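# step 3/5: fold
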Amino acid sequence: MTPTLVRQHPSHAGEVPRVDLCARARDWSEIQERMLVPLYEAVYERLEVGPGTRLLGLGCGSGLALLMAASRGAAVTGVDHSPERLALARERLLPDAWGTRARTDTRIVDGSPEDITAAGDAETPAFTLVTAFEPIGCLAGDSEGLGGLLRAATPLVGHGAPVVLAGWGPPERCTTSSVLRVATRLADPLRSTGSWRPALRDDLEEVAQRAGLKPDGSGRVACPFGYADMDSAVRGLLSTGLFDAAISATDQAQVDKELAEALHPHLRRDGTVWMPNVFRYLIARTP
């Protein structure tokens, strides 16, 4: 829940866990990413995303939010640092990969906003909307990386354009918070970035202000996490990267076991797993 929910590859002390990054990206794309669809829809509806929109998606991941904007007629550009997720985004958004003509106004860029000009025309028109849908407020230190991305994106955006930030809602409104505490408990020996923390009320506003943006409205959206079975729930949550520090501090088997135990109270009689959550978004404006 990146969200990553949010950055999905946090840096921290200790050895980076060995995981199959392609399988992890596929789990994100097929299981977890869709949990935030209500958030994407609410933002696009509020900002009237359509044919006149030139959207820049920061941390675009495997591209579902970009695909939804493109289906409304928007021209979309996505940037991310995960080659595995970007490969899936290209499959979704650039049909040339399977023999069909791609839209010329869709771009997927490996890297950061500074790499966009190098990847396209020098006279790229200004973007009219920036989204950073990977939720912050659940990993210690996750807002610092987002602030840098926002500052790098600002020169590419028109004056007064909306920039949308997303974050976890209050812990008491997010059932998944109790499950994410497993990550904090297991990762505690690292005492560093990468472990879960409760979301704070002003997380989004503080990031916006540090990036030189002016807050201009916000909203809350219900985004329940629903899974077909326990295995899907474990794989989906692991795909967010929020448990990477815990895996480094212990091992994969231990994290899998304790994550499944924490999910057990949310297991329904039909075998599905259901956790109501609320996510928050902030609309800020460029100077």
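# step 4/5: annotate
Residues 174 and 277 are 4 Å apart (CA to CA).
# step 5/5: archive (pending)
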